[in-house]
Design brief:
It is built from twelve helices and no strands. The protein is mainly α. Among the domains are: 103-205, Serine Threonine Protein Phosphatase 5, Tetratricopeptide repeat (Alpha Horseshoe), CATH 1.25.40; 209-265, Serine Threonine Protein Phosphatase 5, Tetratricopeptide repeat, CATH 1.25.40. Helix 5 (140-153) packs antiparallel against helix 6 (157-167), helix 7 (174-187) packs antiparallel against helix 8 and helix 10 packs antiparallel against helix 11.
């Protein structure tokens, strides 16, 4: 001891010193192990808590909303409904046309339609119906009549005359055939045969007004006024084309010098 105090010093024995150092290291390692274990537990607890629903959320990136497109209504097969309607209409029309073609034509209706078409000046309809009538041998007279009418309408009276003469032998079409035959003679500048033909038509049927009128006008042109007046008076009584009949009678009265009678008409 120096100064009354004796300072304690650790012995400097090497084995004792090494054992003490090792003990301190072991104790320090135990403390460090406990601290690391506690630290890992806390980290694990915090990590699990962050993964809980509603705890850990991310903010979505701002994006512009995609433009809305309006889908067109379509049928299950993908074909629009109006195409189906169009197909039904077209198919129905084709089916109806085929059905009409499968039904045989009525020759009497074909002939009547051809006569109406002649009055309307529709030669194409006449020719079409005439071709169809050729399939019916019992309608030869009707075919000849239509042929003669077409020739007469095309200003070929000389070719129409023999055809109409043959048609006039068929009783079913004789009145019409005689009328157009008389017109053909008149166009061919053969008034005598025209007059006799119209008279034959009137003899067969006194109500053949078209033949009687044509006869009256032809007699007027030949200045056979008295005979023409007889036929015009008959037509006036039957009220056949009254305006035209009265006008022709008035002109004839005036030509005959019958001015008072013409004025009364």
């Amino acid at each position: 001891m120096r100064g009354g105090l004796e300072t304690f010093r650790m012995p400097k024995h090497p084995e004792f010193f090494r054992e003490g150092v090792a003990t301190q290291r072991r104790q320090q390692n135990c403390v460090d192990s406990r601290q690391r274990a506690l630290l890992w537990k806390r980290l694990a607890f915090d990590f699990v808590g962050d993964l809980a629903p509603g705890r850990f959320q991310t903010r979505p990136m701002s994006q512009k909303p995609a433009p809305k497109t309006i889908a067109r209504p379509r049928v299950s097969s993908g074909i629009p409904w109006w195409i189906w309607v169009l197909l039904l209409i077209v198919g129905g029309g084709i089916g109806f046309s085929l059905l009409q073609k499968s039904i045989p034509d009525d020759p009497a209706v074909l002939f009547a339609d051809a006569i109406t078409a002649f009055d309307k000046q529709e030669p194409m309809v006449i020719q079409e119906n005439l071709q169809k009538l050729k399939a019916y041998p019992n309608f030869v007279g009707q075919q000849n009549l239509l042929d003669g009418m077409l020739l007469l309408s095309s200003s070929r009276p000389l070719k129409a005359i023999p055809v109409l003469q043959e048609a006039s032998t068929e009783q079913a079409v004789r009145p019409k055939a005689l009328f157009y035959l008389g017109m053909a003679y008149a166009q061919a500048e053969n008034p005598l045969l025209a007059i006799s033909t119209f008279e034959s038509a009137i003899k067969d049927d006194e109500n053949a007004h078209n033949s009687r009128q044509s006869l009256a006008l032809l007699l007027q042109d030949l200045m056979a006024w008295n005979e023409s007046m007889v036929h015009l008076t008959f037509l006036a009584e039957k009220e056949y084309k009254p305006s035209q009949t009265l006008k022709t009678r008035g002109e004839m009265r005036f030509e005959l010098g019958q001015y008072k009678e013409a004025a009364r008409l």
